[in-house]
Structure formats: C-alpha cells, structure tokens
Amino acid sequence: MYAEVILSQRFPKHLGIFDYKIPDHLGTEIQIGQLVSIPFRSSEREGVVVRLKDKAIVGKKIKNINSITNPQPIITSEQISLAEWMASYYFVSIGTVLKTMLPPIPKRTHAKTEKKIIPKKIPSESDTRKLADTVCHHRQNTFVLTPTSLPQKHSFYQAIIKKCSGATMIIVPTVNAMAGIQSLVPEQLQRHVVVFHSKLNKNQAYTAWQRVMTDKRSIVIGTKQALFLPLHNLQRIIIDSASDQNHKQSEQNPRYDVRIVAQQLQKLYQAKLIFVDPAPTVALYHKIINHQVMLLPLVNTESPTPTIVDMKEERRSGNYGLLSDKLQKEIDSNIQSGGKIFLFINKRGSSSAVMCQDCGHILPCPKCGTTMAYHSKSKTLFCHHCNNKTELPASCPKCQGTNLKMIGMGTQSVEQEIKKLWPKVSLARYDSDTDALPDKHTQIIIGTVRAWQILDWDNIKLIGIISADTLLHLPDYRSQEKTWQLLHDIKFYSNAPLVIQTHSPDNNAIKSFAKGDAKSFYTTEIDDRKLLEYPPHGRLIKLIFSHRDKQAMVNETNRLYKSLVATPLAVSKITPLTPYQHGKWQMYVIIKYTDKTPIKVIKSVMQKIPDNWIIDRDPENLL
Description:
By secondary structure, the chain is of the alpha/beta class. The chain is 28% helix and 22% strand. It folds into 4 domains: 2-101, PriA, 3(prime) DNA-binding domain (GIY-YIG endonuclease), CATH 3.40.1440.60; 126-296, P-loop containing nucleotide triphosphate hydrolases (Rossmann fold, 3-Layer(aba) Sandwich), CATH 3.40.50.300; 307-350 and 409-528, P-loop containing nucleotide triphosphate hydrolases (Rossmann fold), CATH 3.40.50.300; 539-617, 2-Layer Sandwich (Alpha-Beta Plaits), CATH 3.30.70.120. A 7-stranded parallel beta sheet has the order 8-9-7-10-11-6-12, sandwiched between helices. Strands 13-23-22-14-21-20 form a 6-stranded parallel beta sheet. A 5-stranded antiparallel beta sheet has the order 2-1-4-3-5, with helices on one face. Helix 6 (258-269) links the parallel strand 10 (234-240) and strand 11. The radius of gyration is 27 Å and the shape is globular. The protein starts with a strand and ends in a 6-residue tail after the last strand.
C-alpha cells in the first residue's frame, strides 16, 4: 500500500504531493488526515496523508513513511478537498495551503479554564426570527443581510444560533470585532462556543482545534484562520462585516479571500452562507439583482437625514477653516447640552502634504516616493507608508524656493483648530499615533477608523465627518465603493445626527448616501465599471514583483509584461502608490479576464509566472 502525503511547508507551485510506501507494521494504522513523519531529501519532515492507493508513481524510488506523529487525524476530507481547490484557484502549491490550514501542534497541551460568558439579552424582534426561519428552510443557499444598526445585527445572530441545528461559523474581519458576539449565544449553548484567531498561543489553538473536531454542534467565532477548522455537520457560515478588506489575506501566500473561500466551503458542506454588511460590495449587489443570492429584507431603523456641507461654498463665503459654519453651530449646541461629539477624519498628522508655492512641487518621501505628511508636534515630515522620518527642509529641493505651504489636513490639524475655537472643552485625539484612551469626561473625540472600536457610541450625540473626499480621488476603481461603505459604517454604529463636509457634494456615493438611495449608487457604479470590464463584469489577477535594485525590478517587470502581451488576456503595467516598501522596489502587472475566459487559458498563462513573483487573484485594490 502507498500513501499520498502533502508536506506542510511552502513549495514552488508545481510541487506539493509525494508518494510514500506504507511499511507493513503501519499498514492497519495509517488513516487519511493523519500527521506522519517522512524522509524528505536529507532530513525528516512532517506531512499529512491525503490519499491511500495500491500503486505509486512508476519509475520513482519510493521511500517509506517513518512513523505516525499523531494517531488521531487532524484534518478532514472536506479540508483536503478545500486545500486542493485553493491550490488550484490561487496558483500555489498544495503544501503552501496546508501549512496555512494546519494547527500549531504543541509538545504538551494544558487544559485551560475558559472564562464564563454571560449571554447578552437583546430585545427579540419578530422580523429577525422570521429571517432565521428563511435561512434555515429556504431552498436558496446564499443570502445577504444589510442591518442598519448593531442591535439589529446581533438580534439576527442570536435568532439564527437558536433556530438552526448543526455547527455554525461566524467569521469576523478582526479580533476586536469579536467583542460582544460570544455573549449572544444562549447559556445552554455556551459549552459549544469555540473562539479561534491568530493571537491564541499553541496550546489554546490546538485545544480549540480538537474541540471542533469532536463537536457536531460547534459555534465557531473567529477571524479568517477559523475557515480551516475541521468542522463536522457545518450548517451555516456567516461572514460578518463582509465588505471589510481584512477578509482578504494580503501579506503571504495563499492570498485567499474569505468571501470566496467561504463559497467553496458552502458547496463542500451543502451549508447556508450569509454575508452580513450595512453596505455590501458592488460585486455582491450585482449578484442580488441577478438573483444569484437572496437579500434578506429588514425594516430600516429610523435615523436623522445626514447634512451635506459643500466646502466650496464655505470658501466662497469667506470661511477658510477646517470646520464649516454648520458643523461649528452643531458642536456649540452639543457642548451646551453636554453631549459627546465624534469628529472623524481618515488621516493622521497635521497636513496631508507640503507643497512649494513657487513651483508646485509636493515633497515626496526620499525612500519610497510617497507624499509625506507633516506632523506639527514633532515638527517632522513622516511617511505613513514606509515610516521614514525627516526634518522639514528650509527650501524646496526642486527649485530652492522658500515658500513652503502645508496642504490638506489630518487629526492633529483638526485638534489644533478645536483647541482654538473651544479652548475650555475636554478634548482627545485617537489614531495610530496615540495610545491613551479618552476618559469618560472627554466631550470631543477626534479620530480615524481606529477610534471606532473604543467609542461609547450610545453616548455620541453628534458626528462630524471633516472630509468625505479622503478616498474619492484615489486612483482605484473601488474608491467610490469604499467611500459609500465608510459612510454606512459610521451610520451603522450610531444614530446621532451626522454632518458630512465635502468638496464633491454631487459625487454619486455621497449624494446617494444622503438620499438613502442604494439602488442609484449601485446601478451607476455597476454601469461605470462595465465600460472597463472591472468587477463584477470582469476578474483581476495582480502580479507583484519586488527587488532591492530598482533597475532589476523594472527589467524583470518589462520582460514578463512583454511575454504576457502575446496571450489572449488583457495585460497592463502599474506603478503602485507605494513603489518602495520594506526595503524593496515593486511594480504590478495586472491581468484582466472574464468569467467566459476558459480555465485552461488562465492556467496556461499562470504557468509563465516565475516563482519569485507574487500572484494575487481577486486583489482588494490596484494601488
């Protein structure tokens, strides 16, 4: 007898599965899914048995399996099928996928007493109970839920956990996003809850893995790593905050997308898949209108209509400050009534850039070329991409002019303006430059997205968006979509009055948000993308090449680009927004294709890609 074994290590994409002979003394003990010790080249390695067979590859010298490392299988047949699919879809070796999937196995495991979670009482809502019924019993397998408030979302989660049998998986974008979800589980089901994420130590992760392996009623709450747990009887997969970019693995291979892998899991287990998000992606909305997925209807919670302030009109009326007259009046009113205020700007620092008014030159980072921000507190120029820090020069490096001007804004510049206008009001700034949490007496909080997880949203009585234009003008086809989602995320957390300052009041995302007109936003965005065959009308693969030598990077990028131009696929070159990162220069080659493109054509093109290139299928952005 022979076994196909996958080594749990990263290999070039054409390697991964190896044949080994099963020695007689292990013949009755070897099982699919077991971890075994095998000789590989000149060393001993670990691998997973994925298949048993009578014959091996002809003409090869087949070595024996040394021993069984773990008698109990640690991976299921569904996981093996998923690993094979991921290796093919993401153009990596199956060993690379398996290394991502396997739990860290400690030398010794220790029992750990889990903290008792007190279930959270949420007012029952008849509509969420009905939606849970729909998910459990409808013939459709994929659903989209668009909650308009946190209690509404939590009510649905509680209803679906109570209503349906079998195992449930809830995937959240970040560890912080888990807060509160475990407490939604009824007390009688708490023993089935398994929390799984990258911050667990080896013992905790392996204990969680073993619990899931033996419990057919598991309720898994975790980040993207939880997708690879050995679940039995999986009935439901919930993707929480489904549009969040943290659902995409972008740091190492396989560069998988939770939302795409979850669809494959749904097929393997014949489970129900629910995408939950206040503002679904354009691609997902396209599936809704084409009846490929089912939208779960929810009654919208009432909220005040957002106020849109045209900052161009403010300038014409003589207001050159960061805050419009309208926002200042609202802040005044809330200060007098004792209400807490959150001022949001998705940019830290004092200014977005430093510009020479003599020649128009904007000071770039000497390392990566990205525009540098000015931090007034340290009086330095700081690059938010490569963390390079330099002093502000006395003159322009291009024309030697001395007329340098700070342009744009950041959290620090907003903080300075608030201190001038309301010097006696308690104020706090919270972004990645600050660690101190605002105390309960703080009346005005200025922050980036990082502040969202620490805010007491129930006590926020006014929200001001200092500039809604931050994402609009980025050179990426998803910039409108991300602005739309950002606005909805803020509204989702709080029902407080919302003042939005913008230089683009007629922009599709901002105008549609103000009117509450989702159909208008999505249909316009879908039509605009059709012209250039961007998703959902096309598919993308981003090829990334990095090298310490800039010229070597350019030469290799040009070489591959020329070789791919001759293929049937559309190919383009892009210099990323940050061309220098982690000590290396980089460029992208973008491949564009459609769902009608034959798989064999895509795979034949991918075979041309050398192993020292990164392949990112379905990239989150093109920057």
